[in-house]
């Protein structure tokens, strides 16, 4: 079967009349690694898990993308997400390309020591293919700043101290202030730019806007908190264990404060709120639904249950192509993942720049630069889409055009 890029990219190639010569280079990854990661578990027995790193494109700069620990990760997933990173970094105009990593393991089944071992084995296995100017991993689902510290340590033991090998590190090891909140905050900034465009008053200016959030990890929790602080009513939240609904608005800071030591939402006491299933925030009556957990949570089978007029794609690929088409044909505004969740990679870029220059910006500077970039990219997408056009198509067109232009400029000799 001939290689194909994602449906969204193929559609953009057709709209932009990208020549096969360039499209073909974007239909397959530059490099794909599948690696075996053996480690000795806490019970003294050898276990083996499988890891992947797919480097899609480095035409605009070093490969860049997160590392995910999740039981369902496979090469196809990582391939799709690596391609998505190429479009995301191009859309927000960072000098990076696209990559993604994954390990098919349930991080909740591992102790802290076992997670560290898996991270170390991963870097040892893919080490020859990465570097601070070659490929720079970052956190994603199931990994965090601690995982990045272990990757940094494993890489630095071989190559000498190299903080630029990962982003999303602890601040004490050269991480950037503002990185933890960046993706969630960026999503809300993109949303506010769209609200301004459609003439809807922001809560900070007196408007009443409700939002429902699926996923209460890095992206979902910080987006919910940012929304709450800015005056939105956060009417539903969920994590893998289940969730809560309150039409009056949930007290997110109180809930967040109660989630210590890996607590899950179902175990909490949330006065006045009704318990709901993990999927339910996607279906509640809210102005905005923010899927911030897994991909493909809204598909042809459940799209008719989604009634919100705005979908803010916090997760990567939370909508299938079919579902997205149905929603857009109903007039729903879909703020696409490559824009809505680009805040993380933007601050990753800031972290990499600070590392390269051996300096640290204060948090206010990081957040101001983040807000400016996301708002500018959102305005560009809105302009490109024109009146009533698809933001998803507009974002893809801008991104693909930038990547193809870089290929033209770099030449093919
Ligand atoms: P995370 O591991 O920190 O959190 C994931 C959350 O989703 C957890 O609360 C988990 O309980 C919940 N969850 C898992 N399965 C669920 C289900 N079936 N129903 C409801 N909730 C469920 O991950 P994250 O970093 O917040 O990433 C979430 C998504 O955002 C992923 O798609 C990731 O690729 C994407 N993303 C993350 C970043 C980032 O900076 N962290 C950047 C861009 C995109």
Describe the structure.
The chain is α/β, with parallel strands linked by helices. The protein folds into 2 domains: 146 residues, Leucine Dehydrogenase, chain A, domain 1 (Rossmann fold), CATH 3.40.50.10860; 159 residues, Rossmann fold (3-Layer(aba) Sandwich), CATH 3.40.50. It is 42% helix and 17% strand. The strands form 2 sheets. Strands 9-8-7-6-10-11-12 form a 7-stranded mixed β-sheet, with helices on both faces. It starts with 6 loop residues before the first helix and ends with a helix. The mean pLDDT is 96. The site of nicotinamide-adenine-dinucleotide has 25 residues, from helix 7 and strand 7.
List the SSEs and their pairings.
Layout: H1 7-16, H2 20-27, E1 31-40, E2 46-57, E3 63-69, H3 75-91, E4 98-103, H4 112-126, E5 135-139, H5 145-159, H6 179-197, E6 210-214, H7 218-229, E7 233-239, E8 242-245, H8 252-258, E9 274-276, E10 288-291, E11 310-312, H9 321-329, E12 333-335, H10 337-340, H11 343-357, H12 363-385, H13 391-410
Parallel strand pairs: 3-4, 3-5, 6-7, 6-10, 10-11, 11-12
Antiparallel strand pairs: 1-2, 2-4, 7-8, 8-9
The structure holds nicotinamide-adenine-dinucleotide.
Nicotinamide-adenine-dinucleotide is lined by residues 139-142, 183, 214-220, 238-240, 278, 292-295, 314-316, 341, 344.
